[in-house]
């Protein structure tokens, strides 16, 4: 099961023993009355209010503190009442209670038509003292105390929200004073001051954590969502307004998080508006709504991503089931995800931060969608990553199980499911070294089975995004989170339609936290968010141009010096992270091309961030960029390290006189895919990667395949590897063929450095030919003016060779010497090489 539930509170476990100790065991007998002991509210500070029936059928209200694990008796009514709503202030001096006095049948039978059906009371409970009637009406009323900022000193004023089914919400201001013996009483003996908060609403939801009120008012054929923010200074104001294209046929008021009904009442309200508003820490704002469907066995629900400016509507065909088993879709807030859950049918995890591509949302059915401990009744999400099961009075902390997610990833056959699971594991689940290792193992086994995406690219990009974006606000809008540009796949079992919606209007000043992040998200949408993400196209062009210009020596040394200085900082920064001996032989040599790419990436990414994060400061951006590129190199090394360990390879550089094992060939294949992945994203590799890759290629590949890989740029000839190959291999016929094939493919600059390590006539002949060619190219149209004699101790009577050597000697005397760093390569070297080669062809022995 993908969702892991841990019971943070259980009425039977946490309250039952306390009640039994005090002689209220009757409250635990649920056989006759399932609502004898039930949760009625959860306050902001984690305190849970519950009610139970006493031995004399009196009604009690208690409080459980999640932090101290202690129970407290708050109040008792000496009669059997149906508690509708209850709330206690943060100082626990006042208790607001709304209850039903009589049912309609009871009023008629007892001739109590003049008595109101519902009563709302304000009670002094420190100690129990006066009781004040706030409302005596025939419509249901809910109550909720506002909570000040946590840690604030005790206040002498409390504020209470009163929500009526008559479609209005008002706020009461209650001043209290402390009398003798710490007694706290309400100061005003007259009417309490009140203020109207909202009118004409048909739906309202209380956000206890952030002290926000969301409510909906109908407007012609549409609905308008509004949000009122309550502040610690006792003010409140409407901060958000958004138009929603939701048709409402049932005008009864639906209230969310204003107390909790048990599962019996849930059926009564199942036909009313099933809607939830969820926020995320990153500034996401979603409206989740389950829509009525005229087609049997079909469920339709919509998610309005207000922070993105579009909505997605999903239509799901259900498996055949008895009608009484079908319930409304339950919506759960998991921060990074919104979950749509229909027990026994499906569990849909929708990515809030990146909802544009469906492949980053998980749609589960069957056993994967089952949540064992939840009943098919009252499921609500009062807090982020929290589930309340009202039927059994249990509150769960909900999280995504990393083991279940990994199991799902391993058994998935569809690319969309693999992508969603991979991103969920890397971006949402708290990544551990063990989880990361298992993901790398899965990637190494499935490189050829993922057809629509590259798992190595996604691993690197998503891991970088996860590691970096928590550091700085708005960085998540500037760094790439995927290598994919689009996704044209579908969700099996669900049909999705996307609609553009109007962006919400915000009205706030100097507001921090969520509203600032939401406003930043909306601004990103206005300015075409996809174009804000860093892309490697510019880097690729600059790297290619710079590589070409370097060959022609056209770029200024100052610019190149800065680029290589950037690379030096990255490698130095990386060294401070890992002081242990590296298992994989990387970072042990210089790699000009990779350092060039490193330095360019630092420069390009710095320019990109400076354009959009000007308020952060240059020093901070420099640090972000260094961290990003160093983390990139470290991730490649991390992949190599886990692969190295899994296939039990040694850390030493390979010997070329042995053929590679099956394990080495598997690692070579993985390294080829890493190279392909990084080339596709124009990302640098750790210095030494190409040397290691070439070494494995020499050991594992037949010669024609090896040369094919070199010619097509899969394998790169490096000085370290070629030098070792030329020095370590003896000159058998097979090895001579390999060496000569390698030598002839070396770039000129590299060839001059390493050919001297192969003392063989073939190599000498090759060097001589190259030397002659270069000298003749330098000669141009100039003619020799005088002969130069005595090139060898014994004159050679071979006129063509004498003429050539004399001409070359004259060019040398003019100051032309292509191989200045190799003094032994001169005209005499050419002469000796020519004679040796001729004698060898004639089958004669040269002395």
From TrEMBL:
A Pfam family the protein falls into: GSAP-16
One CC-aspect GO term: trans-Golgi network
Domain Gamma-secretase-activating protein C-terminal, chain residue ranges per copy: 633-740
A Gene Ontology biological process term: positive regulation of amyloid-beta formation
Domain of life: Eukaryota
Matching InterPro entries: GSAP_C_dom (IPR028010), GSAP_fam (IPR026172)
Name of the protein: Gamma-secretase-activating protein isoform X1
Organism of this sequence: Aythya fuligula
Lineage of the organism: Eukaryota, Metazoa, Chordata, Craniata, Vertebrata
Gene for this chain: GSAP
């Amino acid at each position: 099961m993908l969702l892991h539930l841990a019971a943070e509170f259980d009425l039977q476990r946490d309250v039952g023993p306390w009640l039994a100790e005090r002689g209220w065991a009757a409250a635990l007998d649920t056989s006759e009355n399932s609502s004898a002991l039930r949760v009625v509210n959860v306050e902001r500070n984690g305190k849970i209010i519950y009610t139970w029936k006493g031995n004399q059928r009196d009604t009690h209200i208690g409080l459980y503190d999640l932090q101290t694990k202690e129970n407290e008796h708050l109040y008792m009514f000496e009669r059997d009442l149906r508690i509708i709503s209850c709330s206690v202030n943060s100082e626990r001096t006042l208790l607001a209670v709304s209850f039903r006095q009589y049912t309609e049948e009871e009023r008629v039978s007892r001739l109590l038509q003049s008595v109101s059906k519902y009563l709302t009371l304000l009670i002094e409970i420190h100690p129990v003292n006066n009781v004040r009637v706030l409302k005596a009406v025939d419509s249901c009323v809910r109550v909720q105390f506002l909570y000040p900022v946590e840690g604030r000193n005790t206040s002498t004023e409390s504020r209470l929200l009163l929500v009526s089914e008559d479609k209005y919400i008002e706020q009461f201001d209650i001043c209290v004073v402390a009398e003798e013996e710490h007694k706290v009483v309400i100061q005003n003996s007259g009417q309490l001051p009140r203020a109207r908060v909202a009118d004409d609403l048909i739906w309202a939801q209380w956000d206890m954590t952030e002290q926000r009120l969301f409510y909906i008012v109908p407007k012609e054929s549409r609905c308008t969502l509004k949000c009122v923010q309550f502040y610690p200074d006792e003010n409140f104001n409407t901060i958000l307004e958004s138009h929603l294209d939701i048709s409402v046929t049932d005008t009864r008021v639906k209230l969310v998080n204003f107390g909790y009904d048990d599962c019996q009442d849930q059926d009564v309200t199942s036909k009313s508006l099933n809607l939830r508003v969820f926020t995320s820490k990153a500034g996401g704002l979603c409206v989740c709504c389950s829509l009525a469907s005229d087609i049997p066995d079909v469920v339709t629900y919509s998610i309005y991503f207000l922070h993105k400016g579009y909505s997605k509507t999903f239509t799901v065909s259900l498996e055949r089931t008895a009608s009484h088993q079908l319930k409304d879709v339950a919506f759960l807030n998991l921060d990074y995800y919104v979950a749509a859950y229909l027990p026994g049918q499906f569990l849909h995890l929708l990515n809030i931060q990146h909802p544009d591509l469906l492949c980053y949302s998980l749609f589960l059915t069957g056993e994967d969608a089952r949540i064992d401990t939840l009943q098919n009744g009252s499921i609500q999400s009062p807090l982020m990553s929290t589930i309340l099961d009202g039927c059994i009075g249990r509150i769960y902390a909900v999280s995504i199980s990393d083991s279940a997610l990994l199991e799902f990833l391993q058994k998935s056959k569809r690319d969309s499911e693999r992508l969603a699971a991979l991103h969920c594991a890397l971006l949402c689940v708290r990544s551990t070294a063990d989880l990361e290792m298992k993901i790398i193992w899965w990637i190494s086994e499935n490189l050829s089975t993922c057809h629509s995406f590259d798992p190595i690219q996604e691993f690197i990009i998503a891991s970088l995004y996860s590691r970096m974006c928590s550091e700085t606000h708005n960085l998540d809008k500037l760094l790439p989170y995927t290598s994919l540009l689009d996704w044209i796949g579908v969700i099996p079992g669900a049909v999705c339609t996307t609609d553009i919606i109007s962006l919400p209007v915000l009205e706030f000043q100097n507001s921090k936290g969520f509203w600032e992040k939401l406003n930043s998200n909306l601004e990103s949408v206005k300015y075409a968010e996809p174009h804000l993400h860093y892309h490697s196209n510019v880097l690729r062009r600059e790297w290619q141009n710079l590589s070409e210009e370097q060959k022609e020596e056209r770029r200024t040394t100052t610019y190149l010096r800065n680029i290589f200085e950037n690379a030096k900082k990255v490698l130095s920064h990386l060294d401070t992270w890992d002081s242990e001996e590296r298992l994989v032989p990387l970072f042990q040599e210089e790699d000009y091309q990779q350092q060039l790419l490193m330095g360019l990436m630092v420069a390009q990414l710095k320019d990109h961030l400076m354009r959009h994060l000007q308020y952060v400061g240059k020093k901070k951006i420099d640090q972000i960029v260094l961290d990003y590129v160093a983390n990139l190199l470290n991730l490649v090394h991390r992949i190599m390290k886990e692969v190295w360990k899994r296939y039990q390879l040694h850390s030493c550089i390979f010997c070329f006189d042995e053929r590679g094992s099956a394990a080495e060939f598997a690692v070579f294949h993985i390294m080829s895919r890493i190279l392909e992945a990084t080339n596709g994203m124009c990302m640098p590799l750790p210095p030494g990667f190409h040397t290691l890759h070439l070494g494995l290629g020499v050991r594992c590949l037949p010669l024609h395949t090896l040369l094919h890989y070199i010619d097509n740029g899969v394998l790169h000839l490096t000085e370290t590897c070629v030098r070792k190959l030329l020095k370590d291999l003896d000159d058998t016929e097979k090895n001579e063929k390999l060496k000569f094939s390698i030598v002839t493919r070396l770039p000129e600059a590299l060839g001059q450095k390493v050919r001297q390590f192969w003392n063989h006539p073939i190599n000498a002949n090759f060097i001589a030919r190259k030397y002659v060619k270069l000298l003749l190219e330098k000669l141009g149209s100039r003619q020799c003016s005088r002969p130069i004699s005595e090139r060898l101790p014994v004159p050679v009577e071979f006129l063509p060779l004498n003429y050539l050597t004399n001409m070359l000697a004259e060019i040398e005397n003019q100051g032309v010497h292509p191989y200045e760093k190799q003094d032994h390569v001169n005209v005499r070297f050419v002469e000796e090489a020519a004679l040796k080669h001729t004698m060898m062809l004639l089958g004669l022995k040269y002395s």
